[in-house]
Amino acid sequence: MSAINNKKIDEITQNVMKSSISHNTKVKYNASNVAFIVWLYDNRAQYPNILCKDFCKELEASNKKDKKVKTVTGEISKKREAIRNCVRKKLIQSVVKKATHPIHF
Question: How sure is the predictor about 19, in pLDDT bands with cuts at 50, 70 and 90?
Answer without folding.
Answer: low
